[in-house]
Design brief:
This protein folds into 2 domains: about 220 residues, no CATH class; about 170 residues, 2-Layer Sandwich (Heat Shock Protein 90), CATH 3.30.565. The chain has 14 helices and 8 strands. The protein has a 5-stranded mixed β-sheet. It has a 3-stranded antiparallel β-sheet with strand order 3-1-8. A hairpin with a 3-residue loop joins strand 6 and strand 7. Helix 5 runs antiparallel to helix 6. The protein starts with a helix and ends with a strand.
Amino acid sequence: MKGIKSIWTAKLEWPNPADREQRIKDYVELANSLAWQRMGSFFAAAVLAMFYFDPATTIACYAGLLFSEFLDMWLGKHAKAWDGKDPAVGRRLMRSFTISTVISSVAISLFVITIAVQQTTGGHFTPLFLLFAASLFAAMYNSPLINILLLRLSIYAAAFLFIGFLDIVRFRPDLSSTIWLEFFTIVFVLYFIIDTSLNFYRHYQERLKQIKQIKEENERTKAAYEIKSQFLSTVSHELRTPLTSIKASLDLVNNGTLGEVPDNLKGALFIAAKNGQRLANLIDDLLDLQKMEAGELDLVLETMGVNELVKEAVESTAGYAGKLGIHVTTILPAQELMIQGDHSRLVQVMNNLMSNALKFSDEGGSVQVRVEPKGDHVRISVEDEGMGIPENARDRVFGKFSQVDSSDIRKVGGTGLGLNITKQLVERHGGRIDYESQQGVGTTFYVEFDLVEDGSSDRTDSTQMALTA
């Protein structure tokens, strides 16, 4: 009773202009996915029918079936090319699919009916099975278009009932006869097909609603992301100008350019200048992050030596290392190894790795920078003797605004963007970044890039490449 009730209470929604394009294209995709199975099954049935029954009738019906299949294929090409904007095209496609459905279902129904008419004994297993198989195919690939599904099933239902009443009219049997049993079985099979078809249709409806929800959520996410990017860019640029003036003024004061600074003010001014530099670094990181996420980061590719790149990065961080009392050593190969990349961005990568190693090293410790070939790659390693990284912290290491030690009493500060930006820059160069760490011993971060032949190291002969997200 529950199954019967579900048939009558099933919600049927006719295709509307809002989702007609999606339904038609889903219909075509499902039909094409089962095309060879359908044609193979009907061909095998036609061969058997020609052998055991009238060949001329079989060939005529099979020709009509083939015509409808090729018509569906032709319509499918037009449906895939339709962008959904012109509703008139959608209506023409629906009319064409309706005509094709009538031709196909009538050809199949006539085919099985002619077989049933020619079978005077032994029941009608063969035509009924073929009709049952055709109905299941319809339930599977007609579910996106409920009007097409109902049209095809109505024609098949007429064929089922015709075959069911055929022997009843022929022999007028008693109710106890197996002919009536076959008729009631056909009715039950017909109910099963209708219920199965509606289940397929309901599942498709649920899937369509889920797709709509995902699209709507995606549009909302894109809108929110666009607003966030615009806000981030605007705020960062608006902060940069006054902060640059503040930093320049503090530097003038601290350098004594504007006069002698009283001793009781030197500490406060030094802290102000230091925090001003931290804010400037944060703004630079935010702007880089916004550019990468928006696909607006331009890389000027050139061939450069890895040794020179490392030396430049070590020299640029020498003052910071000296202030922390950390000794930096380099191990470089005798022969220069060449890579291709954006010089300023790769210096930024090395500076991030160097400053990260220096921040997490103890005073008086050491940091080692090593360059070594690895087959057709070159590896640049930065090794420190700091506290190390816990095993379960890998996601946080390269995450945005995250640090391994995020507590209020952590040893070093920072924005939590450096390694994330570094990872994105390395990957945009086609490279790889990773690390090895042991707590209490230290951490080694390394990047790998493809080696190139030393064709030219002239930076004026560079190529600009605009990367898109």
